[in-house]
Each structure stands twice: as C-alpha cells, then as structure tokens.
C-alpha cells in the first residue's frame, strides 16, 4: 500500500463512514424505528398504506384527499390478467422452482418503456403542455393541437390514450370523476386534468370512434395533480402492479404444474426456418 493511500485511509473518520449512506427517510437504532421522524408504532393503526407511501416519498403525511386519490390510482392498476407479459412471465417463473420473490422480480423486471412505461410518458406529455401554457402563454387547445401534430408527424401513439383490449377502459371514469370532484371542491388545481381531457377531445375529432384515456392516462392525471414527478409515476405503477404479480405467481404455485411454457404442450411454435437438411447439403 502506498504512503498516499494509507494516509487517505487514516484520514477517514467514523462520521465519513456513517454519512456514506445518510438518509432523511428512516432513523433506525436498537429498539427504534422512525420514518421521516414518526415512530413506526405511532403510524401503525393511524396511517394507511397509501399515506405511508406518500410519507416516505414526499416527507410529510398527506391530506385526506391526497391519500384517497393515491389509493384509488394504486387500486386501479393492480392487475390486468395473464395476458399481460409481466404477469405471464411471473406465472411461468413460479413453475420453474424459483422462490416467490424471484417470480415477482421476473414480472417486475418486464415493466419497461413499452410495457409499464406509458404512465410516466403521459405525465411527461402533460408536464410539457402545462409548461407551454404557463411559461409561454399558449392556450391549452393550441398547445395540445401542436403536440398532436408532432405525434402524428412522427407516427407515434400518444401515451395514455386508447387501449389495445378495451374500447373504453373501465378504470377511466371512476378515476377522473374523483379528480373532477376534488377540483370542484378546490383541493386540486385541475390543470393536468384539463390538458388530458383536451387531448382526449382532439384525438376523437374526425374519428369514427373516440380514443379515451386508459389506465395510464387516468393515473397520470392523478399523479400529476398530486405533484409527483413522472419517474415516480412509473415507480408507483410498478408498486401497484406488484400486487397482481404476487397474486398470480402465488396462484400458479398452487397449480402443481412444473416448467409451464408460453403455450400448451401439444402445441409448438411455428417453425419458419430451412427444411430438414444434412451438413453436406
């Protein structure tokens, strides 16, 4: 060991070590667990799970309406059946002899930009339109019109609108109705809701069928109105969908089937390669 390196190590103090993973979230010592300053025993029975999520992410306990809206969004996104790749993967993993935690991780790790990322992307869209309206004075309708023109030119779908399975996502109306009630009561500003509804209205113009908000769009409105950053919107979706992933993995564990593949055993994937041949061919 060089003299300089030894001197650097000698200069490290206990405080340097304890500061290495310093945190403002949890304060843990023997017999003590405090979350953002609250003793955990004082939260048990007084703070709901959504309120505790808010506390850990935001630093303070939420108001009643904030906790209620967060809970609505979390409940709405818990599951979408085995046709969802993340849940199908978790179920397959559960038949392969791995632990429940590994089966859950298999499903969660499939939640990326394409499957599971539309909520964050929609929040980013709402934030961009909101910035154009607030900072540049562009009317909402004009800002949305410009946004949709960009998406049309790039031949891209607007995240958070339309659904490959549901003509009208059944989760849209109760979520947006709850937001509208809070806006009417003066507890939410409603700017992100206004933008999302304008996008929905303009997407429907000239089409034989409307393109309503899906779960990603509706929860994006809630998370945006509640002041969450877009990346946290994705994290909250993953947290919510983990419930469904857990339930499906557990159900599949009880089926007794081993090494369950993506299609039933009598069926085989279509082969499109060369006809049977020998090396000399």
From TrEMBL:
<comment type="pathway">
    <text>Carbohydrate metabolism; tricarboxylic acid cycle.</text>
</comment>
<dbReference type="GO" id="GO:0005975">
    <property type="term" value="P:carbohydrate metabolic process"/>
</dbReference>
<feature type="region of interest" description="Disordered">
    <location>
        <begin position="256"/>
        <end position="281"/>
    </location>
</feature>
<dbReference type="InterPro" id="IPR002020">
    <property type="entry name" value="Citrate_synthase"/>
</dbReference>
<dbReference type="GO" id="GO:0036440">
    <property type="term" value="F:citrate synthase activity"/>
</dbReference>
<dbReference type="InterPro" id="IPR016142">
    <property type="entry name" value="Citrate_synth-like_lrg_a-sub"/>
</dbReference>
<dbReference type="Pfam" id="PF00285">
    <property type="entry name" value="Citrate_synt"/>
</dbReference>
<protein>
    <recommendedName>
        <fullName>citrate synthase (unknown stereospecificity)</fullName>
        <ecNumber>2.3.3.16</ecNumber>
    </recommendedName>
</protein>
<dbReference type="InterPro" id="IPR016143">
    <property type="entry name" value="Citrate_synth-like_sm_a-sub"/>
</dbReference>
<comment type="similarity">
    <text>Belongs to the citrate synthase family.</text>
</comment>
<dbReference type="InterPro" id="IPR036969">
    <property type="entry name" value="Citrate_synthase_sf"/>
</dbReference>
<keyword id="KW-0808">Transferase</keyword>
<dbReference type="GO" id="GO:0005829">
    <property type="term" value="C:cytosol"/>
</dbReference>
<dbReference type="GO" id="GO:0006099">
    <property type="term" value="P:tricarboxylic acid cycle"/>
</dbReference>
